[in-house]
Fold this sequence. Notes:
By secondary structure, the protein is of the alpha+beta class. It is built from two helices and two strands; from the N terminus they run βαβα.
Amino acid sequence: MDLGLKGKFAIVNGASQGIGFAIAHALAAEGAQILISGRKEAPLIEAAARSHRYLAARPRRMKT
C-alpha cells in the first residue's frame, strides 16, 4: 500500500515497543523518515536494530 509518505518526517513517541514501535515501523516501511523517542535508551536501541533496514541513520542519544 502506498500512503504517500515518502520524503515525509514523523516523530513517534513511545516507539521502543508495542503500538508505538508498530507505528514507527509501518511509517518507515512506507518511506517516511522517523525519529523515535522513549524513556529508556536500551529499548530504543533494540527497536532501531529491529527496524534496521528502514533506518537511514544510526541511533543517537540526545543531550538533555
